[in-house]
Specification:
The complex is a heterodimer of chains A (296) and B (339). Chain A has 296 residues and is of the alpha+beta class. Among the domains of chain A are: 83 residues, Copper Amine Oxidase, Chain A, domain 1; 107 residues. Helix content of chain A is 55%, strand content 17%. Chain A has 7 helices and 7 strands. In chain A, helix 4 packs antiparallel against helix 5. The longest helix of chain A has 61 residues. By secondary structure, chain B is α+β, with helices and mostly antiparallel strands. Chain B folds into 3 domains: 77 residues; 113 residues, Double Stranded RNA Binding Domain (2-Layer Sandwich); 96 residues, Ubiquitin-like (UB roll), CATH 3.10.20. Chain B contains 13 helices and 9 strands. Chain B has a 6-stranded antiparallel β-sheet, sandwiched between helices. Chain B has a 3-stranded mixed β-sheet with strand order 8-7-9, with no helix packed on it. In chain B, strand 2 and strand 3 form a beta hairpin. The longest helix of chain B has 15 residues. The radius of gyration of chain B is 26 Å and the shape is globular. The chains are: A alpha+beta (296), B alpha+beta (339). At the A-B interface, helix 3 of A face loops of B. Chain A: It is found in: Chromosome, Centromere; Nucleus. Chain A: InterPro entries: CENP-O. Chain A: It comes from Enhydra lutris kenyoni (northern sea otter).
Chain lengths: 296, 339
Amino acid sequence: MEWANDGKSRGGVLAHLERLEIQVNRSRKNSEDLQRAQAVEGTLRTKIHKLRCLRDELRAEAKQRQARVKASAANVEPDQTLEISEQEVAERRRENVKAILRAYRFTGLSGKLTSRGVCVCISTAFEGNLLDSYFVDLVIQKPLRIHHHSIPVFIPLEEISAKYLQTNIQHFLFCLCEYLNAYAGRKYQADRLQSDFAAFLAGPLRRNSLCNLLSFTYKVEPRGQSVPFCARLLYKDLTTTLPTDVTVTYEGTDALSPSLEEQRASHENLFFSKPLHQVFTSFARKGEKLDMSLVS
Amino acid sequence: MDETLAEFIKRTIMKIPITEMMSILKAWDFLSEKQLQTVNFRQRKESLVQDLVLLCEERRASIHDAALLDIIYTQFHRHQKVWDVFQMSKEPGEDIDLFDMEQFKSSFVKILQRALKNVTVSFRDAEENAIWIRIAWGTQYRKPNQYKPVYVVYYSQTPYAFTSSCPLKSNMPLLGQALTVASNHHKIVKMDLRSRYLDSLKAIVFKQYNRTFETHNSTVPLQDRTLELDIHMDSRIIHENRIEKERVQRVTQETFGDYPQPRLEFAQYKLETKFRSDLNGDILAERKEPLRCLIKFSSPHLLEALKALAPAGIADAPLSPLLTCIPNKGMNYFKIRDK
């Protein structure tokens, strides 16, 4: 590159010729580049042209099809296409209604028409838990009668139907609902006590068919040395899930200390006011709190 | 353990089939695991029973333990007894029944023992708040006869009690009284219902035999059933009286339902009626006194047999209501007189 700086002074004619050669090459290259660019531009232009043509074709076809559809829709069988969509709509609506009818169970009182009357379904629940369902199949005749049912034998169905079935069917059903839901609630509490809080019980849970008499011996702390108490819960009102009579006693020979007496009395109140399993949950929580305080 | 007790235990264990021996002994829960492990259950039954009786002696079995084993054996073989059904009733307007099992038991025993000093009463709690009671009767001078006990099955807070047929019928009124008073009832009446199948009797009186209910969740429509007749038949067979067959099917289905029938072995009808005849001048028709006769239907499964009568072409449909009312009325003994 030293030669280039010297310019015209060095080399004389040869250098000049070289320079001219370089110039020519450069210009040739430039023109080649230009040509190439022009060629590319050309191909791109043709491509654009082709795509534009294709777009126009497709647009034209789309317009034609739309026109055809419109024409045929306004043509010979307009009803069939409408019918098909109507049928679909009707099917969907029917499925929807069926689903709603099935879901009616969750309201607690539902029914289905039968060939001879209606089959009523009473779905019991307690504290948001869905429990057993019971059925009463009614024959709509004069007099109204029960064809068959799945009400347990210890629920006073004959009494309730003697009072209300013929005169006020609504009251009959609501009364039956009341009894069944209360029974289901009491049974739920007794089952929960037996299964979840067995550790607190110092003996078997005594119960009966209606779950309206519960008798058990329990300790506030399952592993601790707390005093065992005997509880006897009576539910004289068959339409409630809380006891009407509660007695908590201490099965020992010594008299209770004042603090234990206080505990006994407070337990009695608890059993009156809260469902059975909730009372034991609170015992369990108190126990946890004690453990925590021991640790810290 | 005295000789009579040992003999009683021996005979009770002898009744148990070898295949059930382990499960019954486990349910009895009297002999310990250790003791049972020492026994060879593959030996001849007589030697096995002897070994078991020795173990019972080791553990000082009492009459109550033996009675409990007897109850468990009977629970496993309830079909060997014939069961009667009693219905109790309360005075109208009585208080809510607060049934306490322990109170019931002590009250029941007290009433029996007050009347009869020599009586063995044993209890075993069962599922669904039921209780099995075993009573061995004695007399004022004789000890209770352990080989002829009566069993009572009672579901708390229901009006029904099931008793095994008692050979010593004179004690039944006392038993009835004890049951009634202990369960807070007022009266007791024997129903005209009897069978070997305790579970079927329970299904009949508790009205639990028909458990099919129409809901929006059930799917099988009734029409499908009538097509069943034709679908399985060869297409080359033409049913000439198809309409009549379908009518019979429909009527049978309406009367008996789709559920399995409760199991009874017989139905008995005692007729005391005047003879009815189409022929005039029949000697029997002229009788002033009513004719007495007894008609008994027997079957391994009576109600299923009755249900099959009309579809099989043996009887006309609908069947006589005297036959079809059996589960509904809870009776299989009928007395029919002229009105």
